[in-house]
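Structure ticket #2291
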Amino acid sequence: MLYVITGPPAAGKSSWIAARATARDIVIDLDRITQAFTGPGAPQWNHDPIASKVALRARYAAIDEAVKHIDEVDVYLIHTMPSATWLARYRRLQAQIVTVDPGEQLVRDRVRAMRSPAMERVVTRWYRHYRGSAPRQGAGEEQAQASRDW
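Resolution: structure written out below.
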């Protein structure tokens, strides 16, 4: 099964996955990929443009390979703001799309406490685009709330 986890930055997407995935499952998380490609001491949420570009290319390759195995293992994919094209692809693959959103104020508090100020713009963009329609739940899709107490 393919699970596509959406939601604003700092919503708890990784925590939602951690509560469900097993050691055998595949987890595709751009933050984790970026961290794997950067040196010691790099911030956990590293948004350096070069590191981000390298990680994004690796993420695309990981998605392409992982979806070949969704009949054998569960694949958990974090995609904060999937476009209509990506959503259509995920739906063709019969993905379960899960939106994790504990609420805008809590997300903004978390971003201020844990992330770079640039992430505020991503939060604003996410809520402008998805408020009330995150990302259009359908059959087999769910809206999740906070994954843990912070």
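Closing remark: The first strand starts at residue 2 and ends at 6.
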